[in-house]
Amino acid sequence: MRFFLFLAILIGFGCATAMPKFPADQSFVDFPAAGNLERVTSARVGDSVVEKAKFFKRPAKLLSSEILDEHTVIGTVTLGPGKYKALYQLKEWTFYEPTAGVFSKGPGEFMGNAYGLLASDDGRYATGYALSGATGFVRHSYLEPEDIVLISDTTHVDVQLPSIKQELVYNGRAESIIRFMYREYKNDMARPAFTQNLVYDLDQGSRVVFQSVELDVVDATNTEIRYKLLSGFPNYE
Question: By residue range, what is the domain housing residue 208?
Fold first, then answer.
């Protein structure tokens, strides 16, 4: 038992308190960029003429190849290649959990808790796993330099956190009438209650306005629209 404690270190608060989750950064993506009066953008029927997406991303580690940690008395820990996202942070250590589709395995799997990668503020790495209830994690011995060179920094879009997307889709032209459809998605699922069909008459002018979106139509056919985007969707919480 004394030998096991030397190779596997328990880091945690105790049974009652869960570890703080590593904070995710909120980001927005706009397509196309608005406000450039010289830029003409084109879209075909069924394509978005303007869209905004909000998503959350976390720091992550990318393993370029498989890592085998054989320096534990409980057996070999295997971390497969792929992304490991920052999930918990405690003291100087951050626990990186394997993302969907990334294989990791260790003896017994400890009641379903996935093995992952631990990284310290001073550049050390180890294998380990989070305890049930996220009250701490178990860290095995430090990884060797030949394993560390397989690890690089990257980012991961966390699909488990709420994401929202807004888009205005071109639906074609009949005579002077052009049609659009507004759609919203939450966590990649369409929200029917937030879907609207929109109609504009080019005989009344080339300006299309919907909510905060404003675009100037340069040309439109039943298959394609060319336009200048004056303003897009706002950022939202």
Answer: 25-55+161-231
